[in-house]
């Protein structure tokens, strides 16, 4: 018995000697975290503000009565998402689908990288020589093709795609690429164009609100999947304005480099959400390749309260992002891109949209929080929502309510809709030539507040 007790004592001493905590409660120490400001974003410090309309706005006060609310710190895009930035999303989706189709056909015809041609685009696991144990166990890929039977196979991103028809490597490659274009009978003037209906993005997410309300619900029942066509609806330039010649905007606005730095339009609320999901996936894919890098918080659309708080730029009770109540500076220059002077669209030096970094930014260094394009936010429109929402991080987004809030006014709106407190809505599946969006990301921690009491 004495020997047994002695043995336990020795084991206890050895265990204590091998531990760095010396038997004390020191907590689990994770790897050091260094906050990184996302590219093109500004940190908006958390704080309280008076949200809503002033009492003298008898029309607006009915659905936006003034109330004091508090929001946590977050990052927000300096500008509206531009055509160039959205094209990166569209091209990523297109290229991923092409690569998946190439890999599937290479597998079906038995081609591997050493065979050249389409074999160079074969699934990564076609050659396992340079794969880690983990890579052999679990692959990640993306496909916008729906169920294919090839889920879990890793597509090859290391080989550049070939878009010049004169340089297609073989007939199999030609066969795949041909499926991505409109058929000959739908082409004209000798030009074949991409079949943009095939540019579909698939993503999954968890309905955390539903999971919290129903504790007994199974995880799989709150995991939702979406499939979204990502190409903007360029016909909005025609449909939004009857008896108006806007064909040049329809033809060139989204894809031409002349408009690369202009805000993207013609995107639905659903497409804007899909962009946010893609941006998160894209950044985290890069993070996985960096040793010791942490995954980033998801990008998302701002809540209505976050948008208004950011638009005010720290100014309490201001009418516009620059203060107010006037839309002109002391030098007689318009402060934003909107519809002034009874329809003289060019009076503010812009006929349609302007480049995303135009006019002066507000005090949070955010551009065009009023005018240029209205912006989707992650909120459903309810005229009485201000009456029942929480006063801390208020948010109302009912999946069954398809009326989604847009804020900020646009190039075709009168000054009233540019006011930081003005509310408007559009249906989630609708696209307009005057609605775009910008994204936000949660800030980790609670130290950054604008109006905290410091002693």
From TrEMBL:
<dbReference type="InterPro" id="IPR042095">
    <property type="entry name" value="SUMF_sf"/>
</dbReference>
<dbReference type="InterPro" id="IPR005532">
    <property type="entry name" value="SUMF_dom"/>
</dbReference>
<dbReference type="InterPro" id="IPR051043">
    <property type="entry name" value="Sulfatase_Mod_Factor_Kinase"/>
</dbReference>
<protein>
    <submittedName>
        <fullName>Gliding motility lipoprotein GldK</fullName>
    </submittedName>
</protein>
<dbReference type="Pfam" id="PF03781">
    <property type="entry name" value="FGE-sulfatase"/>
</dbReference>
<keyword id="KW-0449">Lipoprotein</keyword>
<dbReference type="InterPro" id="IPR019866">
    <property type="entry name" value="Glid_motil-assoc_lipo_GldK"/>
</dbReference>
<dbReference type="InterPro" id="IPR016187">
    <property type="entry name" value="CTDL_fold"/>
</dbReference>
<feature type="domain" description="Sulfatase-modifying factor enzyme-like">
    <location>
        <begin position="41"/>
        <end position="440"/>
    </location>
</feature>
